[in-house]
Amino acid sequence: xxxxxxxxxxxxxxxxxxxxxxxxxxxxxxxxxxxxxxxxxxxxxxxxxxxxxxxxxxxxxxxxxxxxxxxxxxxxxxxxxxxxxxxxxxxxxxxxxxxxxxxxxxxxxxxxxxxxxxxxxxxxxxxxxxxxxxxxxxxxxxxxxxxxxxxxxxxxxxxxxxxxxxxxxxxxxxxxxxxxxxxxxxxxxxxxxxxxxxxxxxxxxxxxxxxxxxxxxxxxxxxxxxxxxxxxxxxxxxxxxxxxxxxxxxxxxxxxxxxxxxxxxxxxxxxxxxxxxxxxxxxxxxxxxxxxxxxxxxxxxxxxxxxxxxxxxxxxxxxxxxxxxxxxxxxxxxxxxxxxxxxxxx
Length: 346
Description:
With 346 residues, the chain is α/β, with parallel strands linked by helices. It has helices spanning 46-53, 76-83, 101-106, 114-127, 143-154, 173-190, 201-207, 225-230, 235-242, 249-255, 283-291, 321-333; strands at 2-12, 19-30, 35-39, 61-66, 69-70, 86-90, 161-165, 193-198, 210-215, 218-224, 268-274, 294-305, 308-318, 336-343.
């Protein structure tokens, strides 16, 4: 378990000694075996926070406990030993260009025989599915291959925690998907606790079950990923979610006065958002039949997050207003949030 309590980390920005709070009184608990996302726009403090976990950045105040051991009180040799159980991978891979793949992965292995190192490195390369590149140099690898080597090196000392600091930001979407799948597989196979630092909601959506959102050095929202996506509470979180949703395009269509969003008298346009994890009924077709109204879908964005449907639709209701209101009440009873966008009157 990772326990951060009241972490504060300040940097001094100028000669006047002006302090900037990169991390400002953050407390966070990450359980063993979690894949936990820490999300934030650039400058939010998320990378500084994750570097406080292994004390690459030492907090100005606060407590960092790994499995109940207070990391900030360890002596240098004790801290070095504790860090061997915390692997870390970065956006730019940090491979040594003059060393082969084998040599890069073997670098952290200091107290093994040559035969033990050879076996360990080859087992790791097989685990991350890049055995055939053992003798290649980093310059000969693709971005995804470099990150697989970096992951293998981070796993060399058999860590229990893997910190991923924007580990997929330099990769194309297809390669990002393969690296995220690899991390999920490692989480299951090795029981790794994985902390994912990212500004990409797609990454959190694809790999994490829990997440925290940071802004200006503070955690502004936290919880399971489904809830964060389906019912974000903070403006920053809502902005993040919108970057991954087609439903936000409705504002552009309205601004451009698109024919798609021009209402006839009596029509009502609304956004239907799933806010419960077990929605599985054919809600549009049922409501249309049950209340004898037309429901025209303008935009839809429904996908699976954490094993449940998240997203929603933008629709235009057409029919007697009393029946439309009954349909809206029905949706609300099914834990569907109904947001009226435009109303052409009863």
